[in-house]
Design goal:
Elements lengths: L1 H10 L1 H27 L2 H25 L6 H23 L3 H21 L5 H9 L7 H30 L1 H6 L4 H23 L4 H15 L3 H26 L3 H27 L2
C-alpha cells in the first residue's frame, strides 16, 4: 500500500499540493498553537474559528447582490476574525468578564449571522461546505502563497517577541510589573491567532481547524515544559500527522481534513497513558 501511495504522490498533482499545503500549515500552526495552549486561549481560538462564519456570510451575501470582488469569503473571514478576536480580548480586559461567557456569546452570534445570510443567498451551499470542512485536495497556489506569507509573519514575530510572549503566557502579572506592554502583546498574539485561523480554515475547514492548531501543541506540552522545545516538537508532530492524514485518506478514500483531525485526536489520547507509563517506568 505504501508503494502505491508514493507512486500516486509522484504523479498526482492534487495529492502533491495537498501534502505540501498540510506541511506548510504544520509550521505556522505548531508555533501559534504552542502559544495558544500555554496562554490557555484554546477556546478563544475555537470561538473565532466558528464566529468567522458571520463575516463569510456577510461577504457572500454582499457579493451576490453587488458583484463587487472585494466581498470575498477570505475578506469576510479576516475582518470578522479580527473583530471577534479583539472583542473577546477587549471585553475580558475592560469588564473583567468570564472568558467562557464572552466566548459563548461570540460563537453564537457569529454562527447565527453566517447561517442566516448564507441560507438566504442563492447557490452558496458550496461555499458553506468548503468553509466548514475545507478541501485540502483542491489546495491551489493561492493557498500555498497564503501559507508561505503566514509562516513568514509568524516566524519573524516569534523571533522578535518570543521572550515577551513567554512572559505574558506564563506570568502576565509579573510581566505587567516589569513594565512590559502587556495589553499590546496580548492583542498582537490574538492577531496572530486570528490570522492563523483564517488561513488554516482555507485548508482544513472551521470545524477541524482547532485539532490542527492546538492538539499537536497539547501533545508536545505533555512531554516538555520548555516552550521552545514545545514549539519544535509541535511542528514535527503536526507535520507527521499531516503526512499520515494524507496517506490514510488516500488509502481509505476518506476526506483529508477529517482524517488529519482523527489521527491528531488519537495521538493525543495515546500520549496521555504513554506519558504516565514513562513516568512510572523511570521511577522503577
Amino acid at each position: 500500500m505504501a508503494e502505491t501511495f508514493f507512486a500516486a504522490l509522484a504523479t498526482n498533482p492534487f495529492l502533491q499540493m495537498a501534502l505540501f499545503a498540510g506541511l506548510l500549515a504544520s509550521l505556522g500552526s505548531g508555533i501559534i498553537g504552542s502559544y495558544t495552549v500555554v496562554r490557555r486561549v484554546v477556546f478563544i481560538s475555537g470561538s473565532i474559528a466558528h464566529a468567522v462564519l458571520g463575516g463569510i456570510g456577510i461577504a457572500i451575501y454582499l457579493h451576490y447582490y453587488t458583484l463587487n470582488p472585494i466581498f470575498s469569503p477570505l475578506t469576510g473571514a479576516i475582518f470578522s476574525a479580527f473583530f471577534f478576536g479583539f472583542l473577546i480580548g477587549w471585553m475580558h480586559l475592560k469588564y473583567k468578564q468570564r472568558v467562557d461567557s464572552v466566548i459563548a456569546a461570540v460563537w453564537s452570534i457569529g454562527m447565527a449571522i453566517g447561517v442566516i445570510l448564507i441560507s438566504v443567498t442563492p447557490g452558496s451551499n458550496a461555499e458553506l461546505m468548503n468553509f466548514l470542512f475545507g478541501n485540502l485536495l483542491w489546495a491551489s497556489m493561492r493557498e500555498i502563497y497564503l501559507l508561505i506569507i503566514l509562516n513568514g509573519i509568524i516566524i519573524v514575530s516569534s523571533i522578535l517577541f518570543h521572550k515577551r510572549f513567554l512572559a505574558i503566557c506564563f506570568d502576565e502579572t509579573n510581566a505587567f510589573l516589569q513594565k512590559q506592554p502587556v495589553i499590546f502583546l496580548y492583542f498582537f498574539l490574538l492577531s496572530l491567532i486570528c490570522l492563523t485561523i483564517v488561513i488554516l480554515i482555507q485548508v482544513i475547514g472551521a470545524i477541524l481547524v482547532i485539532s490542527m492548531l492546538c492538539l499537536p501543541a497539547a501533545i508536545a506540552n505533555i512531554f516538555t515544559r520548555s516552550l521552545s522545545k514545545m514549539i519544535y516538537l509541535a511542528i514535527v508532530l503536526s507535520a507527521i500527522m499531516a503526512f499520515l492524514g494524507t496517506y490514510f485518506s488516500y488509502l481509505f478514500n476518506w476526506p483529508i481534513g477529517a482524517t488529519i483531525a482523527l489521527i491528531t485526536t488519537c495521538f493525543y489520547f495515546l500520549a496521555l497513558p504513554l506519558k504516565q507509563f514513562m513516568v512510572s517506568y523511570s521511577q522503577k
